Amino acid sequence: MTKRYNSEKANFLLEALKKDPSKHYTAEEIHDLAKEAKFLLPIPTIYRRLRILISDGTVIKYEAPDSDKASFGYNVNLIDYKGYHVFCTTCKTLEHIECGMVDSFASHLLSSHNFRLDKARTVFYGQCEKCSEML
Fold it and tell me: Which of 117, 27, 37, 6 is CA-nearest to residue 72?
């Protein structure tokens, strides 16, 4: 079990991620949020806190294929969140969508195959509207 410390820095990071569970941030973006809030939160501290939050399941790490950058988001399985992830393989953006068809598919998996879809870790790959228009 990972030891968890409650500190102003840890609370700032977690609250930033919880504020909008549909958003994902890189460590650099979290650092920028802290700077905007006039809060000193060094990058190494951010990575240490993220490792702890990932290990206890509070935060999910998303790694894009063919990219060295990871983004981090609040684990939507901890709340009643109705979204799913879509990843654009062209512009490398990760976004949340709400889709009744995916909800139906998730229900089918559970009722017919006794398989529970993990919303926080399910990512659909393809192209976003903007990148599709450029083809």
Answer: 27
How is residue 118 written in tokens?
């993990």
Are both 57 and 102 inside the same structural domain?
no
Whether residues 61 and 36 fall in one domain: yes
In tens digits, the chain (135 residues) has pLDDT values of: 445 556 787 788 889 998 888 788 999 999 999 999 888 889 999 999 999 999 998 898 988 777 777 889 888 767 666 778 898 989 888 888 888 899 899 999 999 999 998 877 788 999 999 999 987
**pTM for this prediction:** 0.69
> How many domains is the chain built from?
2
List 86's β-bridge partners, or say none: 95, 124
> Looking at the structure, do residues 90 and 121 belong to the same domain, yes or no?
yes
DSSP 25-75: B-HHHHHHHHHHTT----HHHHHHHHHHHHHTTSEEEEE-TT-S-EEEEE-
Statement to judge: residues 63 and 86 lie in one domain: no
